[in-house]
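Memo to structure team: turn this sequence into structure tokens by end of day. - J.P.
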Amino acid sequence: MNNVGNVSYAGKSILVIGGTGTIGRRLIQALLRENPKVIRIFSRDEHKQYEMCIDFKEDSGCLRFLIGDVRDQHRLSRAMEDIDYVFHCAAMKHVPACEYNPFEAVQTNVIGTQNVIQAAIENKVRKVLFTSTDKAISPTNTYGATKLTAERLISATEYHKGAKSTIFSSVRFGNVMGSRGSVIPLFKKQILEEQRITLTDPNMLRYMMTPSQAIELILKANNLAAGGEVFVLKMPLIRIGELAEVVIEFTKLKYGITDNIIIDEIGLRSGEKLFEELMTDDEALIAHEKEDMYIIPHNHKDRSNYNTRFNSIVKPFPNDFEAISKKEISDWFIKENII
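Reply from structure team:
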């Protein structure tokens, strides 16, 4: 267990799969402050890599850009040569796209994750951290189902990897405020271009986290991981209708818009839920609570030392959270400079 805890990235080699996405870019910014030897950025989008290379020009001596797809295990294995830590952030994540192209989602989110696992074991990587989603709980759509399967693949590796020392774990995200393809940039675009926004249901509740919280969770989880755990940040619930009102207010203020913004309610899309969950009932019974997160231990590991290891207690997870106020949402926007 010498890979457990006290992770230092100084002088280490790191691979960020899906590194040109919102979370990947923020993670790389944080890792660069730790003075790693090299960060390899693996993605299939040549243009995004080009833009990122320009944006990170001052750190270009440490960064290596690799074009590749998680569906290609051979390419992944080459990318992981001499790598210490892997962060797996690549996915097909848009619910409608996954619904319309389900097997494409399976190939990227499920088979791609198995390819990451196999390549990491072959290359004796120290730790692999997988980014999952709250939509993996009681999934009602292809995206959630594929992320649940990928999560289970990561955890299950702990009992079939044999004598291999690579540690695998997952973090389970809610919605990341302002991330590319999320609802906030969409609302903003609609306000600026159409003076209207489309809203599925104003009473829809979603767990939300800021980008900085997401990165903090990733780094804390990778430090704590002993193998097979799922780490879940304590996130507030936000009512989508109130979020839309805050986006309208901030966008109008920033861009000097005086026209009224129309809100069109269009109803839930195929595969969407009105309420999301962070854990299953079974997970809630064994989850360890820390000040800022819950840790769901791997079912097939000896959990006798988890209380001491995580400095935590097993505490049933409450499922009766209240949505935060509109003012609290506004405070988040100001702090994180969302608009």
